[in-house]
Amino acid sequence: QVQQVESGGGLVQAGGSLRLSCAGSEIICRSEVMAWYRQVPGKQREVVAIITNGGTTWYAESVTGRFAISRDSAKSTVYLQMTSLKSDHTAIYYCNAALVPRADWGQGTQVTVSS
User: Fold this and answer.
1) How does residue 98 score in pLDDT terms, banded at 50, 70 and 90?
2) pLDDT band per the 50, 70, 90 thresholds, residue 11
3) pLDDT for 40-49, tens place per residue?
């Protein structure tokens, strides 16, 4: 069952910023580790950022220094702040637990960075 909703994507010029949101009280409360993933046509879904309940974070090398993951327990929301966006960041972004059991994948939110 899908337990999360991603939002905040859109069309942005290169160098711009977006903040993605992942809302879902059940999955966020039960998951010690949450993650943002992305997928582009013809490629596998990949992890881009991870955060633990204690606030420890990890980033894929391709986004280190540009993306920042955070979580707000009161709002049951995980965020992904994206800055200095480049065209190769264009993808559908998803959130889910980093460890099993995961929720079903949602529809994600599209991020498109124009050249």
Assistant:
1) very high
2) very high
3) 999 999 999 9
56 by Cβ neighbours in 10 Å (0-12 / 13-18 / 19+) ranks as: exposed
Residue where the block lists tokens 């264009």: 90
| Structure-token match 């995980």, residue found | 78
CA within 13 Å, CB half, 103: 27
90 to 26, 37, 39, 87: CA distances (angstroms)? 29, 12, 9, 6
Classified as helix, coil or strand, 73 is: helix
Q: Is 81 in contact with 12 (CB distance < 8 Å)? A: no
Please name the residues in contact with 46: beta carbons below 8 A apart, sequence gap of 6 or more: 37, 38, 39, 60
Angle, alpha carbons 94-20-66 (nearest 5°) = 100
Tally: H helices and E strands in the chain: 1, 10
